[in-house]
Amino acid sequence: MAAPPDRSRAPRLNQALLPQLPAALDVPRYDRAELATGIVHFGVGHFHRAHQAVYVDRALRLGPAREWAICGVGVTGSSPFKAAGLAQQDYLYTVKQKLPSGEDRSQVIGSITGYLTAANGPAAIIAQVANPTTRIVSLTVTEAGYEVQARGGLLGDAGEGAEGPKNGYPPSAAWMAPLLRGLQLRRSNGYGGLSVVSCDNIQANGRVARSALLDFAKLHDGAMVPWIEEEVAFPSSMVDRVVPGTTAADIAYLNDQFGYVDDWPVTCEPFSEWVLEDVFVAGRPRWEEVGVEMVSNVEPYEAMKLRLANGTHQVVCYFGVLLGYSYVHEAIADPDICALVTRYIVEEAVPTLAPIAGTDLVQWGLTVIERFGNPQLQDPLARICEQASVRLPKFLLPVVVDQLGRRGPVTVCAAVIASWARYVEGKDESGKPIEIRDPLKENLIAAASRQHSHPTAFIENVAVFGNLAKAAEFSAPFVEALAIIHGQGARALLQRLAARD
Questions:
Q1: Hey, which residues does 139 pair with through a beta bridge?
Q2: Which of 3, 75, 192, 290 has CB 3.0 to 4.6 Å from 58, enough for a Cys bridge?
Q3: What is the DSSP secondary structure assignment for residue 483, as one 8-state letter?
Q4: In whole angstroms, what is the distance from residue 390 CA to residue 143 CA?
């Protein structure tokens, strides 16, 4: 048997190494030294690097335009560590697609050419936004990143250190503050506006980003409001790709297969979709030539994705954990869970969606089941279960509200909420502890602890459910589903739903 490769001697991925890599590995052939930064992206997580950065890389490969490189901006505590690691690799990294067949398809991405964090100082981030070459600011900052609070000043104000103001920023200020300061400089220098592209899972995310930034400007510089309204575009977008966390095995694979060290690869499914409103004030890459669907109105696509893809994740995850599964593909392979998902898509979610020309909504939803069933992704259910109080009101509860409005069925949605309520009790059905990760964790756990004697306690949380507890058409099937889970178990409820009882 051959000796295992000596990883300590493998060269690190960087620009100089590209010509030496195996021909089977797809690498950028364009001259990265000629690139200019045209996009500043806040939130350089796994999803951005497996999705938007890939589309930009494709556009750069088209040539001859070289003005659309990305400068990332970190918005989390781990960002300086990640930025330093990527800098060692000249910001190159590998995207590894995991096919259901067990095959892998790897590609080196070169579209990111810089990465700024608070450690660089606020002025560096502001200057990059204000640079006349910057024409797009894009965002993956999570749903919480659009909440505007009065606390916190602006990046670069007197008295602030490299980490920001002494009392810290609200999450939204990580992008709103430097963007506003950068726009102030653009206005004073006569550079004109730019386009802000939200890539977060929020319906009408462009309008949400616009409203948030304008509210933030009203708090800190009201004179900027009319200028932003006139000079800045906020196209909405729909993004879709499953991007699970990178494992040590993924990093080792690149050493073994291609003979180099990449400490920052990302893994993803083969499927990728980006639908984007074609409303830009300062130009954009030729995205329509590299797979991006440019449209005049993205909202029907957003609703389709949020309800059929993100919503399906929520249908799967709590039942999956209760039954002892660890990964999404394991839960999807369970016939009872798969039947529940199919019923959710066909009977409850699709009837609430507006038609999309050329798209079979039911088939699109059923394709989601195939995608999530990819065993190579190893996507943890725990990841999907996190932040449920933020996710469910955007992914699943709109289905409930719309169905109630049209007097349609909500039996499956009520059962999913019941599975979440049981999940928050903190143990699966074998007694294994469940770690609850949610911004409303304490309130949710307290409500779940009362629901044996007060069955609607969980759905009486107005911050999450609004007035749904008062809607008998929803509360009655919820109470019934919760009673079955408590009395007979999650499997019994799934089988009863499959039998239409």
A1: 42, 198
A2: 290
A3: H
A4: 7
What CATH number has the domain bearing residue 199? 3.40.50.720
Range of the structural domain that residue 54 is part of: 7-295
Sheet containing 37-42: order of strands: 112-116, 69-73, 37-42, 136-139, 195-198
Nearest to 175 by CA among 213, 207, 217: 213
Q: Measuring CA to CA, how many Å separate 22 from each of 61, 104, 260, 397?
A: 19, 15, 10, 49
pTM here is 0.90
**DSSP 3-state assignment of 489?**
coil
Which tens digits make up the pLDDT trace of 227-276? 999 999 999 999 999 999 899 999 999 999 999 999 999 999 999 999 99
Report the amino acid identity of residue 9. R
CA 179 – CA 192 distance, rounded (Å): 14
Vertex 226 angle, CA 223 and 227, to 5° = 85
Task: Please tell me the total count of domains within the chain.
Answer: 2
Amino acid at residue number 461: N
Are 277 and 314 in a shared domain?
no
**Residue 267 covered by a domain:** yes
Which tens digit of pLDDT belongs to each residue from 440-494? 999 999 999 999 999 999 999 999 999 999 999 999 999 999 999 999 999 999 9
User: Cβ atoms within 10 A of the Cβ of 495, count?
Assistant: 17
Place of tokens 């690190």: 12
* pLDDT per position as a tens digit, 306-315: 999 999 999 9
> 232, 263, 295 — which closes off a domain?
295
